[in-house]
Design brief:
InterPro entries: Asp_endopeptidase, Peptidase_aspartic_dom_sf. This is Ribosomal protein S6 modification protein. The chain is mostly beta strands. It has one domain: Cathepsin D, subunit A, domain 1 (Beta Barrel). Helices cover 3% and strands 56% of the residues. The protein has a six-stranded mixed beta barrel with strand order 2-3-11-4-10-9. The chain has a three-stranded antiparallel sheet with strand order 5-6-7, with no helix packed on it. β9 and β10 form a beta hairpin.
């Protein structure tokens, strides 16, 4: 019989990666109050590829780097943010790397401008594998801070 308890302890903030999107490191808030993950995008646009809906988007993962990405749209649905505001968001599925563990998760694309963390990791991504210790942070290493400018630093 296997132990059903989570085996990896994470802090309330951690460094995560999105390997399928070529984003090796992002600062993320671990938020068990949120159901899904949210990724800050600077811009997003919709298009069709072979008749299938896709989304293009720009992210600033840190160090002044800006990356333009694209992914198939998995879903589009209403989300209620922490302030109680409702809005329709695009969802995609991709791999999330947290504490050396990779799993496929659902991520919605959001405008998190003004938030301290470009990524929010919700409880569905944590379920069964992770336990959160809210007294700790960056247990598994730090990610670069997001630049306030999109220009590379000398």
């Amino acid at each position: 019989m296997t132990d059903p308890s989570p085996s990896v302890v994470v802090g309330w903030r951690e460094c995560v990666g999105l390997p399928d999107l070529d984003v090796p490191a992002l600062r993320a808030k671990i938020d068990t109050g949120a159901r899904t993950c949210a990724l800050h995008v600077d811009a997003q646009w919709r298009f069709l590829d072979g008749g299938t809906p896709w989304v293009g988007f720009r992210v600033s993962p840190g160090g002044g780097r800006v990356v333009e990405l694209r992914a198939p749209v998995q879903d589009e649905r209403e989300v209620v943010d922490s302030g109680g505001h409702r809005g329709v968001r695009v969802f995609l599925r991709t791999r999330l790397r947290l504490a050396g563990v990779e799993r496929e998760v659902e991520i919605n694309l959001a405008d998190r401008r003004g938030m301290r963390f470009p990524m929010l990791v919700g409880r569905s991504a944590l379920a069964g594998l992770f336990a959160v210790d809210p007294s700790r942070s960056f247990v598994h290493g730090r990610a670069p801070r997001r630049s306030t400018s999109s220009l590379p630093t000398p």
